[in-house]
Amino acid sequence: MSNQAADASTLVIIPTYNELENLPLIVDRLRTSAPEVDILIVDDNSPDGTGARADELSAADSQIHVMHREGKGGLCAAYMAGFAWGLEREYSVLCEMDADGSHAPEQLHLLLEEVANGADLVIGSRYVPGGRVVNWPKNRWLLSKGGNVYINLALGAGLSDMTAGYRAFRRELLEALPLDELSNAGYIFQVEIAYRAVELGFDVREVPITFTEREIGESKLDGSFVKDSLLEVTKWGLNHRGEQAKELLKEMSGLAKYEWNHFKKQNTWL
């Protein structure tokens, strides 16, 4: 990758569903703060006219592209479609960014600089030192923070914010992941991608970002995140710990066999 933090080989994917007012604002901020990058808007047939507005933005700017999908297929499917589109067109770095302004385009360079320094996946984290959340009620912060603490304990990935959606990927990581096998329970695909990346030995890093609650429109997050996502993580965690136990047992068995053979050599009367 180029030594530049952002260049024309970088694609920022912005999924949309009913973001008519937010979309022009976030695109303008992104074009101002990172004019080198290309943008792909993935619209899930928004009934409020977001798709048509995206087409207008694209017609006026050759670096803005639009993908129209039929029906509301969800965030995971939108990103998977965006990744496939970007990989087919040989982008070196592919990024996730929300359309509602919660991910500051002005902080994109923090993620891209880490990719330029060798990272395969960089997560914009709310919960590492320097990261923060603006305009969230206390109960939502506690739910998110507590959920991430539980996820990290269950999976042992060593990451503070595995549910975060502000990310930059090196294409080689996305090519190595079974993207068509990801769980679509809640928003758990974000956790699964980070977990699989760590398990495969890729360089996963976090940088502090400021997450700002949307000012226009309604959040797409609902209670399914807690119920479905954490249930899925619990399954993975139990499996992960089970595999760890098997490996430990294997190592202990091998050690015991070695010690016994060594003991027999030292004691030929046996």
UniProtKB/TrEMBL annotation:
Catalytic EC class: transferase
Catalytic activity annotation: a di-trans,poly-cis-dolichyl phosphate + GDP-alpha-D-mannose = a di-trans,poly-cis-dolichyl beta-D-mannosyl phosphate + GDP
Boundaries of every Glycosyltransferase 2-like domain copy? 12-176
Reported EC number(s) for this entry are 2.4.1.83
GO cellular component annotations of the record: membrane
* GO function terms (MF aspect): dolichyl-phosphate beta-D-mannosyltransferase activity
List the GO biological process terms.
glycolipid biosynthetic process
Family, per the entry?
Answer: Belongs to the glycosyltransferase 2 family.
Q: What is this protein called?
A: dolichyl-phosphate beta-D-mannosyltransferase
